[in-house]
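ok so heres the complex, two chains, lmk if somethin looks off
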Amino acid sequence: MKFGLKNKIILFATTLVVSIALALFSITYYKVKVSSKEASLTRLSNLLQRTILAVENSIYTLDIRELRSIISANLQHGDVDIILALDKEGRVLTNGLRGNDLRNKIPEHIPLITKLLSEKREISAEDDEYLWIAGPVILTDKVNLGYVIFGVDQDKFNLSLETSLRNQIIVLIPALILSVFAAFVFASKLTRPLNELSGVAELIGRGDFSKRFEYEGKDEIGGLSTSINRMADNLSKITVSRNEMQTLAERESLLKEQAELANKAKSNFLATMSHEIRTPLNGVLGMAQLLKNSQLNTDQQNKIEIILSSGQSLQEIINNVLDMSKIETGNLELEATIFNLRELALAVTAPFEVMGTAEAIEVIVNINVDQSTLLKGDRTRLNQIVLNLMSNAFKFTKEGEVRLSISQLETDDVDVVENAACTVKILVEDTGKGIAADRVATIFDPFTQEDTSITRKFGGSGLGLSIVKSLLDLWAGVYLLSVRRGREPNSNC
Amino acid sequence: MINLWMQTYCRFTFVLLAMFFGLTHTVQSDTLTIGTISSEPVGDIKTFAPFANFLAEKLIDDGVDEVQVVIAPDIKQMVGMLKQQEIDLFIDSSITASIINKLSGSQFMLRRWKKGRAKYRSVIFVAESSDIQQISDLRGKIIAFEEPFSTSGYVLPALAILQSQNQLHQLERLSSFPVAEEIGFIMAYDSETQMVWLERDLVAAAAMSEDDYLEYVQSVLIPMRVLHTTAYVPYHVVVHRSGLEENLIKRIRQVLKTAHEDKEGAEVLNRFERTTKFDEIPDDLLQEIKRLEPFLGDVSINQSAGQ
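and the predicted structre for the whole thing:
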């Protein structure tokens, strides 16, 4: 069962009222009890003295009949339940009745008897059943005739208390019922708008922002409802934006998926086509090589050279396209063979030194590793990387130099030192025109060159650097492009 | 002691009651009237009423239309009403009835077992430590009687003292000195007072019914000793006036003697001061009453009467 705010308010109000009622009742009960007993004692004392005056002659003459008559009359008034007339030794003369079980006995069951007989003055005492008050019947200061003892049933006081209690209950019970009812009404009035507000909040929580809570009061509930309505408004707006963003994201995702599919189809297409083109191209080049070695005149020799050169360029493009396709489709697998880095570097740079001599470009090779340094990896792909970088540098350098530097990587990066399998730095620098700053970000994208005019001017497929980047990504290597336009050399590493 | 005012008041009331019922009786000759002597007329009328109604029911076929109750304050008035035939039946203690019979000509009829008692007797008792050994030892001393109209508390013990050749002399107060050759007596008007006086040596002896003595002796302050025990007499009796019709007497005897035999009658009798039955007065008890008759004149009981 849900113990809601309404029940809590009712419980609290009820507990409060009951507590106050009990406190009031206790105080009143105590006061009534004390005052009632005090008043009763005073009244009984007066009655006792009157009785003592009435019986003194009877006790003096030992006229038991008269004594019994007086006591019996007092008993009939009902104020006192027990009256005993004692002789001077404390023995019972009469109890006001014909049958007198206590005749000639000292009523030792009465708590005040010993004190009464010794002190001979009016005293009172009480036990569980009776309130006792007694006094001496005195002839002179020195002569005591006897005693009179009154016993009043405690129930008489309890009856008074019960009457007081009953009167209080008569007032308190309706007050309690009224207060509980008032608490119920108040709680209902308080919780009804809260419940409605809760319903609205529940709807908002479920995403339904159409409901608003109308509350005209200017109290806390009014403030809360205003806040919730405002929150609903804002959430509604945010949700609209979120939906739009979700729609855009979904569309983006769809487009991306479509693009990836298209790219994959393109790669597959290029791989297939490159493979299909390379086979007849090899045939052409093979035949052209055979033809070149035959008896040709100069003009024929030149033409066959052109055929071979064009064919080799085409083969290079096709190879690059094929490599890029393999990389993009994830079909390129790296080999792990042991090779000599120095030998690889010299082998790669040898053709460029020849070409540089012809074009007045100085090709400088600085290899600062031991001759015996061996690396384990894909020699072919490392060769391709260095070759592409050198080729790219050589392509865009008209004069000056192209430099290849290989050295141990010097770094303070603990991660690199501890985790890298190989820490060799390969640096390719040139004195070419450099790359514009706004093109640096796309220079490694496939089929992209700094300027479309470059393709026309320098040739190439725009795949060289893209292949370098992709291979380094496969190796989890680091590449750095530093571009400086002007006289300072450009560098790639 | 009842003061003078109270005595005058009671006497006046009783006369009015007696006159009222007397007049009624003369108008309705078929009304049966029951009388007794009492100082508490209202209480006794209430006590007698169910018994009277019962008797009226039983005698309705005998020409009795109604049974009335008349309370007389003393023997003298009762005697007068009996002589005037204003009272048909008189119910009281046996000694009182004996005096009434002697003065009015009425006759014993039946014994009443009032409070379940058929007979009773009195005792004269003294403190156990007392040197009084016989009644004559009481000469020059004081004995406490109960009250002047008490059979057991005064008449029977007084008769016993008189029969033992001793003289009684009534004293006004405890402090009075008795005549040396006579036994002084004082009325305590209460059996409990008698005991208290004797226990505290204010009197030399006391007298009361044996039943009362046996009850009080259980709570005495000092041990007691019985000096003299009287003969038994019937506790209560019914007498009829002289001249009452014989058939009616016979019928009344029959009704009363069988009243306790059925449930309704037994219940009525029980409400009539716990009377268990009515029966014939045994001869020995009747003879004892008759034996006392000569002495009754010597006892001052002509004030009012009771048990």
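quick notes: Residues 1-29, 302-307 of chain B have pLDDT under 50 and may be disordered. thats all i got rn
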